[in-house]
Automatic annotation (TrEMBL):
<comment type="similarity">
    <text>Belongs to the class I-like SAM-binding methyltransferase superfamily. rRNA adenine N(6)-methyltransferase family.</text>
</comment>
<feature type="binding site">
    <location>
        <position position="66"/>
    </location>
    <ligand>
        <name>S-adenosyl-L-methionine</name>
    </ligand>
</feature>
<dbReference type="InterPro" id="IPR020598">
    <property type="entry name" value="rRNA_Ade_methylase_Trfase_N"/>
</dbReference>
<dbReference type="GO" id="GO:0031167">
    <property type="term" value="P:rRNA methylation"/>
</dbReference>
<feature type="binding site">
    <location>
        <position position="116"/>
    </location>
    <ligand>
        <name>S-adenosyl-L-methionine</name>
    </ligand>
</feature>
<dbReference type="InterPro" id="IPR001737">
    <property type="entry name" value="KsgA/Erm"/>
</dbReference>
<feature type="domain" description="Ribosomal RNA adenine methylase transferase N-terminal">
    <location>
        <begin position="46"/>
        <end position="216"/>
    </location>
</feature>
<keyword id="KW-0949">S-adenosyl-L-methionine</keyword>
<keyword id="KW-0698">rRNA processing</keyword>
<dbReference type="GO" id="GO:0000179">
    <property type="term" value="F:rRNA (adenine-N6,N6-)-dimethyltransferase activity"/>
</dbReference>
<dbReference type="GO" id="GO:0005739">
    <property type="term" value="C:mitochondrion"/>
</dbReference>
<feature type="binding site">
    <location>
        <position position="41"/>
    </location>
    <ligand>
        <name>S-adenosyl-L-methionine</name>
    </ligand>
</feature>
<feature type="binding site">
    <location>
        <position position="39"/>
    </location>
    <ligand>
        <name>S-adenosyl-L-methionine</name>
    </ligand>
</feature>
<feature type="binding site">
    <location>
        <position position="88"/>
    </location>
    <ligand>
        <name>S-adenosyl-L-methionine</name>
    </ligand>
</feature>
<keyword id="KW-0489">Methyltransferase</keyword>
<feature type="compositionally biased region" description="Acidic residues">
    <location>
        <begin position="282"/>
        <end position="295"/>
    </location>
</feature>
<protein>
    <recommendedName>
        <fullName>rRNA adenine N(6)-methyltransferase</fullName>
        <ecNumber>2.1.1.-</ecNumber>
    </recommendedName>
</protein>
Amino acid sequence: MNRAVSNSRARLAAFSASSSLASEAWDGRFRLHKPRGQHLLTNPRVLDAIARHAALRPGDAVLEVGPGTGNLTARLLASPADRVTAVEIDPRMVDAVTARFGALDLAHKLTVIQGDAMETEFPKFDVCVANIPYGISSPLIAKLLFGTYHFRTATLLLQKEFARRLVAMPGDSEYNRLAANVRMVADVKLLMDVSKRDFVPMPRVDSSLVEIQPRGAPPEVDLAEWLGFTRECFGQKNKTLGAIFKQKRKILDLLKRSQRSERCTSDAPGTGSGIILGVLDDDGNDEACSDEDGDSGDRAAGFSTEEVGAFKERIAGALESTDLAGKRPSKMSNDELLYLLRLFNERGIWFQ
């Protein structure tokens, strides 16, 4: 048996025998705040399964977001990984985790950073393993995948409904902008479901464990442009593309952006330059967009009727050159969407 694995199992057995880790139910040392997403996972079998799915290797640097009182952290420290960095916003949790593993002489392997995960610069890491507060699921995934971090995999415990939307495929009722954007840069897999009864305090919904594995090569597209494009498409994902892109307000908005954006050649495609890290799944239903014609709105927007008409023809030309005008974004693959985006860009229609 590999010596590192053998030592790892021995450490885990020692942890299990320790009175400070054998009882993982919340002992009420301080009040937990549900609105902040403070739900501690206490089921040992589930905690063990998460660590097992993470498949940590000797030499790995692990990032944990929201360690709570350290129930999952214990498993990460018992793994062959070299070090664990835990980011926690609540100073009470920081004190609890620091004291817990300081008493077990593991301070040399653990670094605890007090701070907001969305504002904290993460150190280099190979694997992210986390029971994420539900409120930051989408922006944290955006930060991991569209930021500057390079890592092997992220094993994340998420709200079940959110996880289903994350792994949805084109044509599924849950398919959305979040799934399309994440799949542009990563492969996503559903690993297991976790009951709400395995948490203290018990949340209102069940959870699911997912694995996100970034792709090795960046996509051949400006990611900021792609994100802008999918926002326009999935804002009304159940309308056809032809209906979406003939709306007067949308035409004027795209004309503004396209005229404002003399494309900067210094930004190489695929770098994601200019991406604002935030919510990826802000699908909406922008029914307020108007289909009305007339030149008063054109003049108010600073364009002549002729300019708007010509730009509208460019949009129509891009759509008519494909068989995609009658399709709905919720049923389209990323390859189809990417093809249409390139046709738009070739005609000087920009979304960033």
